[in-house]
Amino acid sequence: MRYVSHKQLHDFSCRIFIKAGMLAEEAAIASTTLISADLRGIDSHGIARLPGYMRLFKQGRMNPRPQIKTIHESPSTLTLDADNAPGLLAGPYAMDLAIKKAETCGTGWVAVQNSNHFGIAGFHAMRALHHQMIGIAMTNASPLVAPTFSTSRLLGTNPIAFAVPAFNEPPFVADFATTTAANGKLEILQRKNENAPLGWIQDKSGNTSENPNELAVGGALLPLGSDREHGSHKGYCLGATVDILSAILSGANYGPWVPPFVAFLNPPDNPVGKGIGHFFGALRVDAFRPADDFLKHMDHWIQTFRQAERVNPNQPIIIPGDPERLTEFTRIQEGIPLHPTVDNSLIALGKELDISF
Hints:
The structure is a single chain. By secondary structure, the protein is an alpha+beta fold. The chain has ten helices and twelve strands. The longest helix is centred in the N-terminal third of the chain and has 19 residues, at about 85-105. The chain folds into three domains: about 1-65 and about 335-355, Hypothetical Oxidoreductase Yiak, Chain: A, domain 1, CATH 1.10.1530.10; about 65-175 and about 225-305, Malate/L-lactate/L-sulpholactate dehydrogenase, NADPH binding domain (Ribosomal Protein S8, Chain: A, domain 1); about 180-220, Wheat Germ Agglutinin (Isolectin 2), domain 1. It starts with a strand and ends in a 5-residue tail after the last helix. A hairpin with a 5-residue loop joins strand 8 and strand 9. Helices cover about 40% and strands about 15% of the residues. Helix 1 packs across helix 2, helix 1 runs parallel beside helix 3 (about 50-60) and helix 2 (about 25-40) packs across helix 4. It has a seven-stranded mixed β-sheet with strand order 2-3-4-11-5-6-7. The protein has a three-stranded antiparallel β-sheet with strand order 9-8-10, with no helix packed on it. Strands 1-12 form a two-stranded antiparallel sheet.
Protein backbone atom coordinates (compact mmCIF):
# COMPACT_ATOMS: atom_id res chain seq x y z
CA MET A 1 0.00 0.00 0.00
CA ARG A 2 1.47 3.35 -0.95
CA TYR A 3 0.21 6.88 -0.34
CA VAL A 4 -0.13 9.43 -3.14
CA SER A 5 -1.06 13.08 -2.71
CA HIS A 6 -4.47 14.15 -3.94
CA LYS A 7 -2.78 16.78 -6.11
CA GLN A 8 -0.75 14.11 -7.90
CA LEU A 9 -3.86 11.99 -8.47
CA HIS A 10 -5.75 15.03 -9.74
CA ASP A 11 -2.94 15.88 -12.16
CA PHE A 12 -2.73 12.29 -13.44
CA SER A 13 -6.50 12.12 -13.86
CA CYS A 14 -6.52 15.42 -15.77
CA ARG A 15 -3.87 14.21 -18.18
CA ILE A 16 -5.74 10.95 -18.74
CA PHE A 17 -9.03 12.75 -19.44
CA ILE A 18 -7.32 15.18 -21.82
CA LYS A 19 -5.77 12.19 -23.63
CA ALA A 20 -9.31 10.84 -23.98
CA GLY A 21 -10.29 14.05 -25.77
CA MET A 22 -11.68 16.24 -23.00
CA LEU A 23 -10.98 19.97 -22.85
CA ALA A 24 -8.48 20.93 -20.14
CA GLU A 25 -10.99 22.92 -18.08
CA GLU A 26 -13.59 20.14 -18.21
CA ALA A 27 -10.95 17.50 -17.44
CA ALA A 28 -10.07 19.47 -14.30
CA ILE A 29 -13.72 19.59 -13.19
CA ALA A 30 -14.17 15.86 -13.79
CA SER A 31 -10.93 15.10 -11.93
CA THR A 32 -11.94 17.21 -8.94
CA THR A 33 -15.23 15.30 -8.81
CA LEU A 34 -13.43 11.98 -9.06
CA ILE A 35 -10.71 12.62 -6.46
CA SER A 36 -13.25 14.00 -3.98
CA ALA A 37 -14.33 10.39 -3.46
CA ASP A 38 -10.80 9.29 -2.52
CA LEU A 39 -10.37 12.28 -0.21
CA ARG A 40 -13.59 11.48 1.62
CA GLY A 41 -12.72 7.80 1.98
CA ILE A 42 -15.14 6.49 -0.66
CA ASP A 43 -12.39 4.58 -2.45
CA SER A 44 -14.85 2.55 -4.48
CA HIS A 45 -15.84 5.66 -6.49
CA GLY A 46 -12.53 7.45 -6.84
CA ILE A 47 -9.35 7.03 -8.88
CA ALA A 48 -9.93 3.26 -9.03
CA ARG A 49 -12.69 4.00 -11.55
CA LEU A 50 -10.40 5.84 -13.96
CA PRO A 51 -9.49 2.79 -16.12
CA GLY A 52 -13.21 1.99 -16.38
CA TYR A 53 -13.98 5.48 -17.61
CA MET A 54 -11.25 5.17 -20.24
CA ARG A 55 -12.73 1.92 -21.51
CA LEU A 56 -16.09 3.68 -21.91
CA PHE A 57 -14.41 6.47 -23.90
CA LYS A 58 -12.67 3.92 -26.13
CA GLN A 59 -15.90 2.13 -26.92
CA GLY A 60 -17.70 5.36 -27.74
CA ARG A 61 -20.04 4.87 -24.80
CA MET A 62 -19.03 8.21 -23.25
CA ASN A 63 -18.55 11.55 -25.03
CA PRO A 64 -15.38 13.54 -24.14
CA ARG A 65 -16.68 16.74 -25.82
CA PRO A 66 -20.37 16.91 -24.84
CA GLN A 67 -22.70 19.74 -25.74
CA ILE A 68 -24.99 19.75 -22.70
CA LYS A 69 -28.31 21.41 -23.53
CA THR A 70 -31.57 22.39 -21.90
CA ILE A 71 -34.57 20.48 -23.26
CA HIS A 72 -37.24 21.68 -20.82
CA GLU A 73 -37.41 24.62 -18.43
CA SER A 74 -39.66 26.44 -15.98
CA PRO A 75 -38.72 29.25 -13.57
CA SER A 76 -37.47 26.82 -10.92
CA THR A 77 -36.75 23.66 -12.95
CA LEU A 78 -34.60 22.41 -15.79
CA THR A 79 -34.20 19.16 -17.69
CA LEU A 80 -30.86 18.63 -19.37
CA ASP A 81 -29.67 16.32 -22.13
CA ALA A 82 -26.05 15.69 -21.13
CA ASP A 83 -25.05 14.45 -24.60
CA ASN A 84 -23.55 11.27 -23.16
CA ALA A 85 -21.14 13.31 -21.02
CA PRO A 86 -19.10 11.88 -18.18
CA GLY A 87 -21.35 12.21 -15.14
CA LEU A 88 -18.31 13.65 -13.35
CA LEU A 89 -18.81 16.69 -15.59
CA ALA A 90 -22.59 16.69 -16.06
CA GLY A 91 -23.19 16.48 -12.30
CA PRO A 92 -21.40 19.70 -11.26
CA TYR A 93 -22.84 21.48 -14.30
CA ALA A 94 -26.40 20.50 -13.38
CA MET A 95 -25.99 21.20 -9.66
CA ASP A 96 -24.70 24.69 -10.39
CA LEU A 97 -27.78 25.35 -12.52
CA ALA A 98 -30.01 24.17 -9.66
CA ILE A 99 -28.22 26.65 -7.39
CA LYS A 100 -28.77 29.48 -9.90
CA LYS A 101 -32.48 28.63 -10.06
CA ALA A 102 -32.67 28.65 -6.27
CA GLU A 103 -31.02 32.07 -6.11
CA THR A 104 -33.94 33.43 -8.11
CA CYS A 105 -36.85 31.24 -7.07
CA GLY A 106 -35.91 29.99 -3.60
CA THR A 107 -35.54 26.42 -4.82
CA GLY A 108 -34.05 24.94 -7.96
CA TRP A 109 -34.45 21.47 -9.43
CA VAL A 110 -32.57 19.89 -12.33
CA ALA A 111 -33.21 16.50 -13.92
CA VAL A 112 -30.60 15.03 -16.26
CA GLN A 113 -30.86 12.43 -19.00
CA ASN A 114 -28.21 10.92 -21.30
CA SER A 115 -25.41 11.01 -18.71
CA ASN A 116 -23.01 8.50 -17.14
CA HIS A 117 -21.65 7.52 -13.71
CA PHE A 118 -21.28 10.73 -11.65
CA GLY A 119 -19.01 9.69 -8.78
CA ILE A 120 -20.13 10.25 -5.19
CA ALA A 121 -23.49 11.94 -4.73
CA GLY A 122 -22.26 13.89 -1.71
CA PHE A 123 -19.81 15.95 -3.78
CA HIS A 124 -22.65 17.38 -5.88
CA ALA A 125 -24.96 18.06 -2.94
CA MET A 126 -22.16 19.85 -1.07
CA ARG A 127 -21.76 22.45 -3.84
CA ALA A 128 -24.89 24.09 -2.41
CA LEU A 129 -23.22 24.65 0.97
CA HIS A 130 -21.06 27.46 -0.42
CA HIS A 131 -24.27 29.38 -1.19
CA GLN A 132 -25.95 28.83 2.20
CA MET A 133 -28.30 26.34 0.59
CA ILE A 134 -29.39 22.76 1.21
CA GLY A 135 -28.20 20.47 -1.56
CA ILE A 136 -29.78 17.26 -2.80
CA ALA A 137 -28.29 14.86 -5.35
CA MET A 138 -29.21 11.39 -6.54
CA THR A 139 -28.66 9.11 -9.51
CA ASN A 140 -29.84 5.82 -10.84
CA ALA A 141 -27.33 3.14 -11.81
CA SER A 142 -26.97 -0.13 -13.68
CA PRO A 143 -29.30 -2.89 -12.46
CA LEU A 144 -27.56 -5.05 -9.87
CA VAL A 145 -30.21 -4.98 -7.13
CA ALA A 146 -33.13 -7.35 -6.65
CA PRO A 147 -36.36 -5.95 -5.19
CA THR A 148 -37.68 -7.56 -2.02
CA PHE A 149 -38.91 -11.14 -2.72
CA SER A 150 -37.23 -11.24 -6.16
CA THR A 151 -34.16 -12.68 -7.86
CA SER A 152 -34.39 -10.28 -10.83
CA ARG A 153 -31.86 -7.44 -11.00
CA LEU A 154 -34.03 -4.38 -11.65
CA LEU A 155 -32.52 -1.45 -9.69
CA GLY A 156 -29.13 0.15 -9.22
CA THR A 157 -27.47 1.07 -5.95
CA ASN A 158 -29.20 4.46 -6.56
CA PRO A 159 -27.50 6.73 -3.99
CA ILE A 160 -29.00 9.80 -2.31
CA ALA A 161 -27.13 12.71 -0.73
CA PHE A 162 -28.28 15.65 1.40
CA ALA A 163 -25.96 18.48 2.44
CA VAL A 164 -27.20 20.96 5.05
CA PRO A 165 -25.24 24.03 6.23
CA ALA A 166 -24.81 24.97 9.88
CA PHE A 167 -23.53 28.10 11.65
CA ASN A 168 -20.41 27.07 13.58
CA GLU A 169 -20.74 23.30 13.38
CA PRO A 170 -19.55 21.34 10.33
CA PRO A 171 -22.32 20.74 7.79
CA PHE A 172 -24.64 17.75 7.96
CA VAL A 173 -23.83 15.56 4.93
CA ALA A 174 -25.75 12.31 4.42
CA ASP A 175 -24.53 10.31 1.41
CA PHE A 176 -25.67 6.72 1.10
CA ALA A 177 -26.58 4.00 -1.34
CA THR A 178 -30.09 2.59 -1.13
CA THR A 179 -28.56 -0.89 -0.95
CA THR A 180 -27.05 -2.50 2.11
CA ALA A 181 -23.68 -1.92 0.41
CA ALA A 182 -22.60 -0.36 -2.86
CA ASN A 183 -21.12 -2.52 -5.62
CA GLY A 184 -17.78 -0.77 -5.16
CA LYS A 185 -17.58 -2.22 -1.65
CA LEU A 186 -17.70 -5.70 -3.21
CA GLU A 187 -14.88 -4.70 -5.56
CA ILE A 188 -12.80 -3.68 -2.54
CA LEU A 189 -13.48 -7.05 -0.89
CA GLN A 190 -12.45 -8.81 -4.12
CA ARG A 191 -9.12 -6.95 -4.10
CA LYS A 192 -8.56 -7.97 -0.48
CA ASN A 193 -9.80 -11.53 -1.08
CA GLU A 194 -12.28 -11.18 1.79
CA ASN A 195 -15.85 -12.42 2.22
CA ALA A 196 -18.86 -10.13 2.13
CA PRO A 197 -20.90 -9.71 5.33
CA LEU A 198 -24.21 -11.56 5.35
CA GLY A 199 -27.02 -9.32 4.12
CA TRP A 200 -25.06 -7.59 1.36
CA ILE A 201 -25.71 -9.97 -1.50
CA GLN A 202 -27.78 -12.98 -2.58
CA ASP A 203 -27.04 -15.78 -5.05
CA LYS A 204 -29.01 -16.36 -8.26
CA SER A 205 -31.55 -18.44 -6.34
CA GLY A 206 -32.19 -15.72 -3.75
CA ASN A 207 -30.15 -17.26 -0.94
CA THR A 208 -27.92 -15.02 1.15
CA SER A 209 -24.24 -15.29 0.24
CA GLU A 210 -20.82 -14.19 1.44
CA ASN A 211 -19.20 -14.49 -2.00
CA PRO A 212 -18.16 -10.99 -3.19
CA ASN A 213 -18.04 -12.35 -6.77
CA GLU A 214 -21.70 -13.40 -6.70
CA LEU A 215 -22.81 -10.76 -9.21
CA ALA A 216 -20.66 -12.37 -11.90
CA VAL A 217 -22.66 -15.61 -11.67
CA GLY A 218 -26.19 -14.22 -11.55
CA GLY A 219 -26.49 -13.02 -7.97
CA ALA A 220 -27.83 -9.65 -6.88
CA LEU A 221 -27.17 -6.90 -4.38
CA LEU A 222 -29.80 -6.49 -1.67
CA PRO A 223 -31.79 -3.33 -0.89
CA LEU A 224 -30.99 -1.45 2.30
CA GLY A 225 -32.26 -3.69 5.11
CA SER A 226 -31.14 -6.92 3.41
CA ASP A 227 -34.39 -8.89 3.85
CA ARG A 228 -38.08 -8.28 4.53
CA GLU A 229 -37.78 -8.92 8.26
CA HIS A 230 -35.08 -6.25 8.54
CA GLY A 231 -36.79 -3.68 6.33
CA SER A 232 -35.54 -4.39 2.80
CA HIS A 233 -38.90 -3.16 1.48
CA LYS A 234 -37.89 0.30 2.74
CA GLY A 235 -34.57 0.19 0.90
CA TYR A 236 -36.43 -1.02 -2.17
CA CYS A 237 -38.80 1.96 -1.92
CA LEU A 238 -35.90 4.39 -1.58
CA GLY A 239 -34.10 2.92 -4.59
CA ALA A 240 -37.29 2.98 -6.65
CA THR A 241 -37.91 6.63 -5.74
CA VAL A 242 -34.41 7.57 -6.93
CA ASP A 243 -35.00 5.68 -10.17
CA ILE A 244 -38.26 7.54 -10.80
CA LEU A 245 -36.91 11.02 -10.03
CA SER A 246 -33.63 10.48 -11.85
CA ALA A 247 -34.88 8.71 -14.94
CA ILE A 248 -38.63 8.66 -15.54
CA LEU A 249 -38.78 12.38 -14.73
CA SER A 250 -35.77 13.24 -16.94
CA GLY A 251 -36.29 10.82 -19.82
CA ALA A 252 -33.29 8.60 -18.99
CA ASN A 253 -33.26 4.81 -18.89
CA TYR A 254 -34.76 3.24 -15.78
CA GLY A 255 -34.90 -0.14 -14.08
CA PRO A 256 -33.26 -2.95 -16.08
CA TRP A 257 -32.62 -0.65 -19.08
CA VAL A 258 -29.95 1.46 -17.36
CA PRO A 259 -26.66 0.88 -19.25
CA PRO A 260 -23.91 -1.01 -17.42
CA PHE A 261 -20.79 0.74 -16.14
CA VAL A 262 -18.46 -1.99 -17.37
CA ALA A 263 -17.46 -1.55 -20.99
CA PHE A 264 -17.46 -5.26 -21.83
CA LEU A 265 -21.25 -5.40 -21.39
CA ASN A 266 -23.40 -3.73 -24.03
CA PRO A 267 -26.36 -1.51 -23.09
CA PRO A 268 -29.81 -3.07 -23.59
CA ASP A 269 -30.82 -2.95 -27.25
CA ASN A 270 -34.36 -1.76 -26.44
CA PRO A 271 -33.75 1.44 -24.40
CA VAL A 272 -36.68 3.24 -22.79
CA GLY A 273 -34.76 6.51 -22.46
CA LYS A 274 -31.34 8.07 -22.94
CA GLY A 275 -28.33 7.13 -20.83
CA ILE A 276 -28.19 7.33 -17.05
CA GLY A 277 -30.33 9.85 -15.14
CA HIS A 278 -29.60 12.21 -12.23
CA PHE A 279 -31.70 14.53 -10.10
CA PHE A 280 -30.45 17.60 -8.21
CA GLY A 281 -32.03 20.10 -5.87
CA ALA A 282 -30.95 23.31 -4.16
CA LEU A 283 -33.01 25.01 -1.44
CA ARG A 284 -32.14 28.53 -0.33
CA VAL A 285 -32.44 28.53 3.45
CA ASP A 286 -33.71 32.10 3.63
CA ALA A 287 -36.56 31.21 1.31
CA PHE A 288 -38.09 29.37 4.27
CA ARG A 289 -36.95 31.31 7.35
CA PRO A 290 -34.24 33.82 8.31
CA ALA A 291 -30.95 32.14 7.48
CA ASP A 292 -29.26 32.85 10.83
CA ASP A 293 -32.19 31.32 12.71
CA PHE A 294 -31.96 28.14 10.68
CA LEU A 295 -28.17 27.87 10.89
CA LYS A 296 -28.13 28.38 14.67
CA HIS A 297 -30.83 25.77 15.14
CA MET A 298 -28.83 23.38 12.95
CA ASP A 299 -25.93 23.95 15.33
CA HIS A 300 -28.24 23.19 18.24
CA TRP A 301 -29.55 20.05 16.51
CA ILE A 302 -26.02 18.79 15.83
CA GLN A 303 -24.84 19.56 19.37
CA THR A 304 -27.89 17.82 20.86
CA PHE A 305 -27.17 14.64 18.92
CA ARG A 306 -23.45 14.75 19.68
CA GLN A 307 -24.29 14.90 23.39
CA ALA A 308 -26.66 11.92 23.25
CA GLU A 309 -26.01 9.19 25.81
CA ARG A 310 -23.59 6.65 24.39
CA VAL A 311 -23.90 2.88 24.39
CA ASN A 312 -20.10 2.69 24.53
CA PRO A 313 -18.28 5.60 26.22
CA ASN A 314 -15.43 5.21 23.71
CA GLN A 315 -17.71 5.44 20.68
CA PRO A 316 -18.81 9.02 19.96
CA ILE A 317 -22.15 9.75 18.34
CA ILE A 318 -21.61 10.30 14.62
CA ILE A 319 -23.25 13.16 12.76
CA PRO A 320 -23.67 12.34 9.05
CA GLY A 321 -20.58 13.62 7.28
CA ASP A 322 -18.21 13.27 10.26
CA PRO A 323 -16.25 10.20 9.05
CA GLU A 324 -15.79 11.59 5.54
CA ARG A 325 -14.78 15.04 6.80
CA LEU A 326 -12.17 13.60 9.17
CA THR A 327 -10.87 11.26 6.48
CA GLU A 328 -10.52 14.18 4.08
CA PHE A 329 -8.53 16.15 6.64
CA THR A 330 -6.18 13.20 7.18
CA ARG A 331 -5.75 12.37 3.51
CA ILE A 332 -4.98 15.94 2.55
CA GLN A 333 -2.10 15.77 5.03
CA GLU A 334 -0.91 12.20 4.55
CA GLY A 335 -1.97 11.28 1.01
CA ILE A 336 -4.47 8.81 -0.40
CA PRO A 337 -3.75 5.09 0.13
CA LEU A 338 -3.73 3.07 -3.09
CA HIS A 339 -4.34 -0.66 -2.93
CA PRO A 340 -1.69 -2.48 -5.01
CA THR A 341 -4.35 -3.66 -7.46
CA VAL A 342 -5.48 -0.08 -8.05
CA ASP A 343 -1.93 1.22 -8.12
CA ASN A 344 -0.91 -1.34 -10.74
CA SER A 345 -3.97 -0.62 -12.88
CA LEU A 346 -3.12 3.10 -12.90
CA ILE A 347 0.52 2.41 -13.76
CA ALA A 348 -0.63 0.18 -16.64
CA LEU A 349 -3.07 2.84 -17.83
CA GLY A 350 -0.32 5.45 -17.77
CA LYS A 351 2.05 3.23 -19.76
CA GLU A 352 -0.67 2.50 -22.30
CA LEU A 353 -1.23 6.22 -22.88
CA ASP A 354 2.40 7.29 -22.40
CA ILE A 355 1.55 9.29 -19.26
CA SER A 356 3.80 8.79 -16.23
CA PHE A 357 2.26 7.89 -12.88
